[in-house]
């Protein structure tokens, strides 16, 4: 049988080219998806996790665990007017804060080679005649832990030296040798001032949080001095371990050492675990990114299996008579089955290996283009894990074996004489058709229910399982209605021509062949449409989530009771890049003494990044820390009102109401608030979306100057929102690259099945030629048939893909909040057009081959 298998591979090489391409492209898609998983993690580590990318462990204080433990020990003491419970205090900061004592304890742990502590300490910076805001950090003493990359000059060595990140140094005209005035306020409101000399510039951070402000690198002694009498608190401590250290054991030892210093609540994680935690904190506390990428890999695996199995089914069906003839000549079933499996094994291994190489080339090219042409995406990294190489080769080989075994087993289950006769296709009236209807309906009903449940509950794994059940059900039912649909549309559009009528009749003359061809395109178009709709909806929903997280682009608030003059506000409005600006005026206070601001609702709508966050009459827009449903507030005239909470995802915003609410609920009008000298003013600014990071930083500086405030008073989330959008766009662009591969899979599948179907119909086409059909008419018949099948399959695929994409996006976006539906209509129309054109193009070569064959020669072939 080995000799027979290799003889078949050599003799029928043209047929096996189709299968090889299907396996190679399908495996490439799976490998590329796994590379996206690894590359996404590595890229996020280089952006969100740039501070700990080179570490072995990351230690952070766990405030959430400390707060939960404190609440458990201290029951709620009060109940607010709306029935919400109110906590009796906060846990001690020493139970979760990391300081010098904690760092020393970590250094003493066996296996720890070096540590570096990072702080979130901020200072005001005066350079020349302007004031800025900067975040301070120190350079790691161990180069293995250092994420500070020196570009020019030297790192600071004394308490009177500092380096500036190159981006802000260039924009603020700060050069080596310049003297900067640093100012910091301690917890006791004591102001500490220091002068430092700039000794060099460092590479800018890719972290959306730290990269949104100027970064100064200073010495530990200067950091201690600026913190005054307060002990320095670290946001995280990164750890480098010795080569012989056991990570799990060292984690436990560090946790125990921290508890010995009083730090009861801390997390000790690897960099990969920490980046998952960081992403999860942005996505509502769940690791949606990992789940989405896992589902992406599973989809790639299933699509690869469907395409390869469909291609093999056509190939084996074409060889059924040949296999039956071999059995009549003495070959037993096991021998023929072994021969087919050997063919599949050879094709599977070689094509899968070629697919992995193709995926590496595609991903490397795509990421190189992104990194070299888009400055904001220079941190994009290609990561090829061992799993991305081994799993696709193994999966491709197994899928090819299964794809060959299933139709071969079916062919072997039929007696030789029965196999030599034309096979009866499944139809509504026969037993096979009825069984197909029952099984298909069950799969669709159960799968649709699971898909809907997963979407409602926000569980993507359940939704994925529902999709994997329902789609094969749709394919099974499709064999019963696809041929008739193609035939009906063909009859309506044939125009009475002979090629058109024949193309329409061919759809129902051999339903299995029509279904196989349509299925190849249906699988690819459904996948492409699903990813297009899902990605577009996910991006729109993420935009809304970012809009709720970063409500305004720029907030001007110096917390000094500033009231901005009309002239200053007008000057700020006229700055280039300002799209809208509104003033918020203090009209009262909450029970806790926090100011409540008021503004016109139309102005709020103009400046807020999410229209869903504009408060209505009687509502107050508050930060995410507020609990319950209402809030008590008191106006300047001592009138008290109970306001309905509109909770945003922002963590630090001041409560905001409309002027109508201020007047009706608190008894404060715009005119009366203007007369109150103690009425605090805050400005909210909406910037032009086309501004890049450099233009935004320039605008912030110019606005501070126009309003007469220090740049430290310029807040808002425009820089962080833009950097998060950059990361999101990067991930979506990689997904778009996978879409291109998916399109290629669909086109290869169509070309395969069309070519094989033409080969299968050699005698049939030759008979038509012998009966008077011209070569031109034969070509038109095959082309018309391809267009009809391609059009129907593409339309159905777009409809199915859109439904799957929306439900899938809903299951993913449940953790981010409400989903914002966004359908890329033009792209979907383009998918249909490309599918029809591709089907037509795929028919050209086999049609020309069929037309060139002489009728007598074709009738003599087998």
Automatic annotation (TrEMBL):
Chief place where the protein resides: membrane
Disordered: region residues: 76-96
Membrane disposition: Multi-pass membrane protein
Membrane-crossing segments per the record: 16-36, 291-317, 338-371, 383-406, 437-456, 462-482, 516-535, 730-759, 780-805, 825-845
UniProt subcellular location: Cell membrane
Composition bias, Polar residues: 77-96
Keywords attached to this entry: Cell membrane, Membrane, Transmembrane, Transmembrane helix
InterPro entries: ABC3_permease_C, Macrolide_Exporter_MacB
Residue span, ABC3 transporter permease C-terminal domain: 295-416, 738-855
The organism's place on the tree of life at top rank: Bacteria
Family: Belongs to the ABC-4 integral membrane protein family.
Stated name of the protein: FtsX-like permease family protein
Species this chain originates from: Paeniglutamicibacter terrestris
């Amino acid at each position: 049988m080995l000799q027979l298998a290799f003889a078949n591979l050599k003799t029928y090489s043209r047929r096996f080219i189709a299968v090889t391409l299907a396996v190679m492209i399908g495996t490439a898609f799976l490998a590329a998806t796994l590379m996206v998983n690894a590359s996404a993690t590595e890229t996020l580590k280089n952006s969100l996790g740039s501070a700990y990318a080179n570490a072995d462990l990351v230690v952070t204080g766990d405030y959430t665990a400390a707060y939960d433990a404190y609440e458990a020990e201290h029951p709620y003491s009060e109940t607010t007017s709306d029935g919400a419970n109110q906590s009796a205090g906060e846990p001690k900061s020493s139970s979760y804060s990391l300081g010098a004592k904690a760092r020393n304890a970590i250094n003493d742990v066996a296996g720890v080679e070096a540590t570096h502590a990072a702080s979130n300490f901020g200072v005001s910076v005066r350079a020349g005649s302007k004031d800025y805001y900067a975040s301070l950090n120190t350079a790691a003493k161990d180069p293995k832990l250092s994420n500070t990359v020196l570009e020019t000059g030297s790192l600071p060595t004394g308490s009177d030296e500092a380096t500036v990140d190159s981006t802000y140094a260039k924009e603020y005209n700060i050069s080596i040798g310049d003297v900067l005035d640093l100012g910091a306020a301690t917890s006791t409101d004591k102001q500490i001032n220091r002068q430092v000399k700039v000794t060099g510039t460092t590479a800018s951070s890719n972290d959306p949080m730290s990269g949104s402000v100027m970064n100064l690198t200073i010495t530990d002694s200067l950091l201690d001095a600026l913190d005054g009498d307060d002990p320095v608190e670290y946001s995280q401590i990164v750890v480098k371990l010795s080569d012989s250290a056991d990570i799990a054991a060292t984690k436990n030892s560090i946790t125990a050492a921290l508890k010995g210093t009083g730090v009861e609540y801390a997390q000790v994680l690897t960099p990969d675990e920490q980046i998952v935690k960081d992403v999860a904190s942005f996505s509502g506390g769940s690791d949606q990114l990992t789940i989405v990428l896992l589902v992406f890999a599973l989809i790639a695996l299933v699509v690869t299996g469907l395409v390869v199995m469909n291609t093999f089914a056509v190939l084996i069906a074409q060889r059924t008579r040949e296999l039956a003839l071999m059995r009549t000549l003495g070959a037993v079933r096991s021998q023929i089955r072994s021969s087919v499996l050997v063919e599949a094994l050879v094709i599977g291994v070689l094509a899968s290996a070629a697919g992995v190489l193709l995926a590496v080339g595609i991903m490397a090219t795509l990421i190189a283009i992104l990194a070299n042409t888009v400055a904001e995406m220079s941190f994009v990294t290609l990561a090829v894990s061992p799993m991305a190489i081994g799993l696709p080769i193994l999966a491709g080989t197994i899928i090819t074996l299964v794809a060959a075994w299933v139709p071969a087993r079916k062919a072997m289950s039929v007696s030789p004489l029965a196999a030599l006769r034309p096979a009866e296709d499944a139809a509504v009236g026969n037993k096979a058709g009825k069984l197909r209807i029952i099984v298909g309906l069950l799969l669709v009903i159960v799968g649709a229910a699971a898909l809907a449940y997963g979407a409602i509950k926000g569980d993507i794994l359940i939704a994925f399982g529902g999709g994997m059940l329902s789609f094969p059900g749709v394919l099974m039912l499709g064999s019963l209605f696809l041929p008739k649909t193609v035939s009906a549309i063909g009859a309506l559009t044939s125009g009475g021509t002979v090629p058109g009528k024949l193309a329409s009749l061919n759809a129902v003359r051999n339903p299995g062949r029509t279904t196989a061809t349509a299925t190849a395109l249906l699988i690819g178009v459904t996948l492409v449409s699903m990813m297009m709709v899902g990605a577009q909806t996910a991006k729109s929903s993420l935009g809304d989530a970012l809009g709720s997280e970063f409500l305004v682009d720029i907030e001007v608030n110096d917390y000094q009771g500033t009231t901005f003059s009309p002239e200053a506000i007008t000057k700020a409005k006229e700055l280039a890049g300002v799209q809208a600006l509104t003033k918020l005026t203090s009209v009262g206070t909450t029970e806790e003494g926090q100011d409540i601001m008021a503004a016109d609702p139309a102005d709020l709508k103009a400046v807020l990044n999410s229209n869903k966050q504009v408060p209505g009459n009687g509502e107050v827009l508050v930060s995410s820390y507020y609990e319950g449903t209402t809030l008590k507030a008191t106006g300047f005239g001592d009138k008290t009102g109970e306001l309905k909470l509109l909770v945003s995802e922002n963590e630090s915003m001041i409560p905001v109401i409309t002027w109508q609410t201020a007047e009706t609920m608190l008894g404060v009008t715009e005119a009366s608030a203007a007369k109150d000298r103690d009425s605090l003013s805050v400005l909210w600014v909406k910037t032009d979306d086309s501004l890049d990071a450099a233009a935004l930083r320039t605008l912030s500086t110019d606005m501070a100057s126009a309003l007469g405030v220090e740049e430290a008073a310029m807040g808002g989330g425009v820089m962080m929102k833009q950097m998060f959008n950059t990361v999101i766009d990067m991930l979506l662009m990689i997904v778009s690259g996978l879409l291109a591969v998916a399109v290629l899979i669909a086109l290869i599948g169509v070309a395969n099945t069309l070519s094989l179907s033409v080969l299968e119909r050699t005698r049939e086409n030759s008979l038509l030629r012998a009966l008077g059909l011209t070569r031109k008419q034969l070509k038109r018949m095959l082309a018309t048939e391809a267009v009809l099948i391609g059009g129907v399959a593409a339309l159905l695929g777009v409809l199915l893909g859109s439904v799957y994409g929306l439900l899938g996006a809903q299951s993913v976006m449940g953790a981010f909040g409400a989903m914002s539906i966004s359908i890329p209509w033009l792209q979907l129309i383009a998918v249909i057009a490309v599918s029809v054109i591709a089907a037509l193009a795929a028919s050209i070569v086999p049609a020309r081959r069929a037309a060139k064959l002489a009728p007598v020669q074709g009738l003599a072939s087998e």
